[in-house]
Amino acid sequence: MQPVHVIGGGLAGSEAAWQIANHGTPVVMHEMRPDKTTAAHKTAGLAELVCSNSFRSDDPETSAIGLLHEEMRRLGSLIMRTADAHQVPAGGALAVDRDGFSAAVTGAIAGHPLIQVRREEITGPPPDWDSVIVATGPLTSPALAETILAATGESALAFFDAIAPIVHRDTIDMSVAWLQSRYDKATAGGSGADYINCPLDRAGYEAFVDALRTADTAAFHEWEATTPYFDGCLPIEVMAERGRDTLRYGPMKPVGLTNPHRPTEKPHAVVQLRQDNRLGTLFNMVGFQTKLKHGEQIRIFRTIPGLEAAEFARLGGLHRNTFLNSPKLLDGTLRLKTEPRLRFAGQITGCEGYVESAAIGLLAGRFAAAERLQAALEPPPPTTALGALLGHITGGHVETIDAGPRSFQPMNVNFGLFPPLANSPSRGANGERLKGTAKTLAKKRALTARALADLDRWIVGRAAAAAE
């Protein structure tokens, strides 16, 4: 049997290789370290954790990432098994001894009889290999990035992302905000009421500009210094520094809009939010790319009328990254549409975070193994964390409806990616009406219970199909 080739020995590549081999298919893993390294890596170990040692919350009942942990455990994840074995105290989070974790993953991969590890850099198009998983992460080597560019036909892979904050739709106060496009214009895919609008009066706008000008910003990493801004997008705080009215004539211009709550009052400025996923559960803040520290973003953006209680699925940022426009380029099993022998996995697909990267590696590995064994494999249900994350990457995103920068951006798993519940819980076990935090927690528990039940049915269905 011909092997599946996995390029990259990070979390996604290691998980993909493990899944393929455990399904009886040989694997050749190609890892360029230690012969060639990156500015972030310090060792030659596989699955090296270059930043935090935390896998975030391990609560499978009320946390989307904790749910993803549990789903991966049920599917035999090497990354989760190793994390559990090398856990260190971190309260409700799953944190690991990073050196022990990497060493254990390296040992497991090296010791698997169906996995061969080659320490070499792949710089050009993969040779005549018929099945390849590219899992090279956000710091893909320049030579391989150029090869990927040529294969995809895209104009750029590495750039400063214009990442605007994303807000959970159900935390926006619609008694203050309203739905409307400028001049009620209905563009392709739109209805004429495609934006949520949050009005600011003169005093509110002036205070907002002052807050931006004095807020703390995050520093660039050394290797980001020479990377250009994507599409020329400037951080919102930089625009504020250029003049007090710059934002009013830019992303916060109030023209073409009428506040139905106060139709006789013209807003001095307006913050617009645009739908970010097909489910309509997430909205991004238009033009609000920023280098503000996360705490500052939450503090300042919650001063915007209508967003006082906003919960953020993702905060804004500008940083160097390498990832595909996956909804355009990849099919539902993570294959490149123009060259199906190539699959992509991990952060290069547009997921964010250690666990999410490994999760997409797990799926890519299972898809590749099933293909090699000529067995059909349906994607996990969209109600699961795995399915929701895959859906975001391969087709759950809504392209921008106006002339703006590429709107698909890396994201952590969150409940905004899940299909809504048919009946959201409104009463507790004793019949009491749920409110506030209790209602939110009940909704999350219902989402996670549905996810695990649907995942178990999917696993049983796969086992039954394999036995036929």
Would you tell me the structural class of the helices and strands?
Answer: alpha+beta
> How do the strands of the widest beta sheet line up side by side?
6-2-1-7-17-16
The percent of residues in helical segments reads 25-40%
Total beta strand runs: 17
Number of helices: 12
The average pLDDT is 87
Low-confidence segments, ≥5 residues, pLDDT <50? 223-232
Terminal CA distance reads 22 Å
Radius of gyration: 23 Å
The rough form would be described as globular
Main sheet overview: 6 strands, mixed
Secondary-structure element order, as H and E?
EHEEHHEEHEEHEEEEHHEEHEEHEEHHH
Strand content: 5-15%
Give a description of the structure.
- The chain is α+β, with helices and mostly antiparallel strands.
- It has twelve helices and 17 strands.
- Strand 16 and strand 17 (339-344) form a beta hairpin.
- The longest helix is centred in the C-terminal third of the chain and has 32 residues, at 436-467.
